[in-house]
Write a structure and sequence with these properties.
Length: about 575
RNA sequence: GGUGGGUUCGUAUAACGGCUAGUACUCAAGAUUUUCAUUCUUGCAAUAGGGGUUCGAUUCCCCUACCCACUACCA
């Protein structure tokens, strides 16, 4: 009989979910959905020392933002299920609330000779470890060393009984068999063999907090929850032999899940896995959602930084997996259809923040103008702009009162969306379609504002053009570009042109404005580029930006005249 | 140190023994434009090294190098 596909994502609530963790959850989810199975969340909080308040909620909210909705373990309100029901038969899904389950399984292993009691205190073991280290050796609690340590294999039965009853810091350890080759199969990595002599006697259960360690809890829960495939990070590969041995010891080999170990996400430059530091240093988030730790330090989140969840999911899916063809854009449904474990790449993937931005840009372009407008309105409001009306209402713009109709905003969005990567870019790109510029490039952007040139190709790190100017005043290209055209002989012409446009009585659509303005300037045999650039500087405050006719069609010729006059006065 | 995993342009990847090693991002150049951006065209750029096996190796095997993970009463 075909086994029902049941996979789980089992995070431990020790902090915010890393984007690599999100990817693991995503792959689990895709696999479950593709096979018509269940995606289960289980909270692995067996280490009370590392528990972080809020982490569990964060993880669930992050997955939800990505559109990864669990079938089991978490209810509709995003709470981890604590009592069993038809939909959540294996509750509780928090391991700390399952402690009564694990001990009997640990005892079962002892009874069958697969495990034993160990009475060495952590201090004793620490001492032995440092002593070994001093001699340049590494201590491992294994087949060889256990004969000389305090445990139920070396101590007389009465002494074991006494210690069990009287002390509380003992553990149960797995009795790793000697010289046995464990033959394993990984869905991604293929066949792997390991000799048990290289393995140690892992702690399975801790009397001190009456909780199992990961290894025991994981195997027991995966078995009880009828997990069919375990898709997890590569860091677990070294403990796969132990897990195989545990399934065997319990006699659960028939229903043992199949395993797939995912490679890690690596930092963009240099070596090592992606960390919070890399994000801070290079200015990209490593967490799906913003996170503030106990010390009050806040880390960026993809959501807060303006990424669309679809873009985030898409870019994550493509990090270490590919469909085998050139398709790069995938909806969640397409991913569910196309995903396969066979096409997962074995090597670790370096994260590329540039590509992440590219994805968001692509998704932004695919959004409707209305959808983007709705996202832009709150940003406008935060700048003191009032947006009123509906998408059926007429287009209106009042620069005095800073009141604009929804359709005006929509038209702006439609014009500028190709230039943006994030919705919040809209304001930077087109603030002058809502308010008059008061700063002009000639005097530099505000001191301290970073003027960053195009990111340089890493191969050309020595390229002097890659320099980043942190003081706009010292960025020569800006002032120079402006000085080139902002001269009295030019801007007086611009003023005349503006006045002409205001009085010509021509239609105010973009096309008419453009031809009228061009014909006027050409007719007078004025230098087209210089006059246009003067107009742009006056209208936008910058030497680059939208087309002049576009801008005028939005702000109107009254604003045109006003702004040119203001600039001529300010920049005299 | 030990064990396991990995290695194709700067990055993500394609090519499951067979065309000139393909695509995307980045970068560069050109075209378009009143500027910037967009768009279009073009370009730069890789099989870690060495041995095998084979008519033929990016692909299979071995060695070396490098990278990663694990080596906790953490997950």
């Amino acid at each position: 009989m075909e086994r029902r596909t049941r996979v789980r994502f089992a995070p431990s609530p020790t902090g915010p979910l890393h984007m690599g963790g999100v990817r693991t959850a995503l792959y689990n989810y895709l696999y479950a959905k593709q096979n018509g199975g269940d995606f289960i969340i289980r909270i692995e909080d067996t280490d009370s020392n590392r528990f972080v308040p809020g982490a569990e909620k964060y993880i669930i909210e992050a997955l939800r933002w990505c559109g990864i909705i669990p079938d089991e373990g978490v209810d509709e309100n995003g709470n981890v299920v604590e009592t069993a029901s038809e939909k959540h038969p294996h509750a509780p899904y928090r391991q700390s609330q399952r402690r009564s389950i694990y001990r009997k399984y640990a005892e079962q292993l002892i009874a069958a000779g697969y495990a034993y009691y160990a009475f060495d205190s952590s201090e004793d073991l620490d001492a032995i470890r440092s002593a070994a280290e001093a001699k340049g050796e590494t201590f491992t609690y294994n087949q060889k060393s256990r004969t000389g340590l305090k445990n139920s294999l070396t101590l007389p039965a009465e002494e074991v009984e006494r210690l069990l009853a009287e002390t509380t810091d003992w553990t149960i350890r797995f009795k790793m068999p000697e010289n046995t080759v464990v033959k394993m199969d990984d869905l991604i990595r293929g066949h792997i063999e390991v000799n048990t002599d290289t393995l140690d006697d892992k702690v399975l259960w801790k009397r001190a907090d009456e909780l199992p360690t990961y290894h025991l809890a994981n195997i027991v829960d995966d078995h009880l929850m009828e997990i069919s495939e375990v898709i997890r990070g590569e860091e677990w590969l070294p403990s796969l032999p132990l897990h195989y041995m545990l399934y065997k010891a319990f006699g659960w080999e028939d229903t043992m899940p199949r395993f797939a170990h995912l490679s890690l996400l690596l930092k963009p430059v240099g070596n090592g896995k992606l960390s919070k530091r890399d994000g801070d240093k290079m200015g990209f988030p490593v967490f799906p959602l913003q996170w503030t730790n106990a010390a009050g330090e806040t880390s960026h989140g993809y959501r807060e930084d303006g990424y669309f969840p679809e873009a985030f999911v898409n870019l994550l899916a493509m990090l270490g997996w590919n469909p085998g063809n050139d398709q790069e854009m995938f909806t969640m449904d397409e991913l569910i259809k196309t995903f396969s474990l066979e096409r997962i790449v074995k090597a670790g993937a370096k994260f590329n923040p540039e590509k992440a931005k590219w994805y968001n840009k692509e998704y932004l372009r695919m959004k409707s103008d209305e959808e983007l407008t709705d996202l832009f309105v709150p940003i406008l409001e935060s700048h003191g702009i009032t947006v009123s009306g509906c998408y059926m209402c007429p287009v209106t713009a009042d620069f005095e009162k800073k009141e604009f109709s929804k359709n005006y905003v929509k038209n702006v969005v439609s014009l500028i969306k190709e230039r943006a990567t994030f919705v919040q870019d809209f304001w930077t790109i087109a603030s002058y379609l809502f308010i008059s510029p008061v700063e002009f490039e000639k005097y530099g952007v505000k001191a301290g504002a970073a003027v960053e040139q195009k990111p340089a190709d890493p191969r050309r790190a020595a390229d002097p053009r890659a320099k980043v100017y942190d003081d706009a005043a010292t960025a020569p290209f800006l002032a120079k570009d402006v000085d080139k055209f902002w001269k009295e002989e030019n801007y007086t012409l611009a003023q005349k042109a503006a006045e002409y446009m205001n009085s010509c009585g021509c239609a105010k659509d973009k096309q008419t404005l453009e031809t009228t303005l061009e014909e006027y300037i050409r007719g007078n045999e004025w230098p087209m580029g210089k006059v246009m650039n003067c107009l742009r500087l006056a209208l936008t405050g910058a030497s680059s930006g939208l087309g002049i006719a576009d801008i005028i069609s939005f702000i109107g010729t009254d604003q045109l005249v006003e702004r040119v006059a203001f600039a001529a006065e300010r920049l005299k």
